[in-house]
Structure formats: structure tokens, C-alpha cells
Amino acid sequence: MNSNVLRRFITLMIVAMLVIGTGTLMYDAFIDRPPGDYETEKGDIHLSVKEYDQALEWFDAALQVSPDHRGALMGRSVVFMQTERSVEAMAELDYLIAFLERSDLSDDPTGRGTLAAAYANRGIVHDRAGRYEQALADYVAALKVDADAVEGPGLVDKIVHDPRPSTVRKRALYIYEQLKLPEEERLLRVPELDARQRMYKP
After folding, report:
1. Is 103 inside any structural domain?
2. Does 20 share its domain with 48?
3. Segments in the chain forming alpha helices (H)
4. N or C: which end of the chain has fewer CB within 10 A?
5. Is residue 201 part of a domain?
6. In whole angstroms, what is the distance from residue 73 CA to residue 79 CA?
7. Contact 55, 75 (CB under 8 A)
8. What is the reported pTM?
């Protein structure tokens, strides 16, 4: 067989494989997506740069396309938490938790992670409002559902933000120990430490 023909054939096969692979990736990423995912992703981008109004618009758009989209519901709750709208955050998290608890999450690790994050975030809302028993109950529920999902930030987050962030486990243990003390001896609010507590969004 002519070596030039063979070389040309191999080159054409490599180019064809690259074109097919790229086309498949593009299809999966932009066309074959569950309804609401694109809008939720856009909301997440705005949320990550603290553009809360725009994030909320995209999350609302996702829910128009796909009511009960768990990523959009979680995104809305985080927007409300970040903007100190605790009543709205609590309502959103209550709804999301109830919705997920009615769902079959046995073969759905993302769903379990979302449920754990929703419990953790609701715990934070209770915690900020001084409802420590409810906060502890939600933190414990989050750890029971999926401890790994609420373990804390990864290495990159620790380097960029805070090397010693509070985690659900640390905060739950701290509240548990404090609640065992007489009320006058409890120290449940330390603003500089509380500020390290992160919200969760799987």
C-alpha cells in the first residue's frame, strides 16, 4: 500500500474523529439538556460574581421552563440568603426540602447532595436568627443525608478564600456543646467566626 495514501487516510480519520467528538460534546452541552439547566447555569454565573438581581432573573426563567428545577430553587434560596432576605430564603428552602423528600433519591447522588445542601443552608438561616436548636437539627439532617456534600470547600476555595472555613460538622458540634451548658454560659454568636460560614450549592 502506498505510504502517502495511508498517511492521508489516517489524517482524515483523525480529523473525522475530532469533528464527531466535538459535535457530540456540543450537542450534549447545548442541545440535549434538561429544561431549565441553561438558565440555571446562567444564574449561577451571575451569583458567583454577586449580581443577585440578574441571578434571580435567570433562576426565575429556569422555573418558568421547568417548575421545581432543584438547581434553580437552590439558586434562588442562596440569592435570598446572600441578600439577607431570610423569610424568602426559608420559604424557598422549606419548599425545596419538601420536594426532594418526596422524590426517590436512592439512585440520585446529585439529588441527595442538593437535599443535604438545602438542610445545611436552612440551618444557616436558623443559626443567623438565633434559633440554635432548629439550626442544629438541620445541620444533623444535612450530615445524615450526605456528609460529603457539605464537608466544606475544596483546596482551591481554601486557598482563594479562607483556609479554615466553618463547616456544617464543626458548627453542629459547637452548637451541641454550647447547648449543653447553662444558658448564661453559652457563647453561640462570634461574628468574626460566623462570617466564615459558607453557604452550600451543589
Report:
1. yes
2. no
3. 3-26, 37-48, 52-65, 70-82, 86-102, 109-128, 132-146, 155-160, 168-179, 191-194
4. N
5. no
6. 10
7. yes
8. 0.75
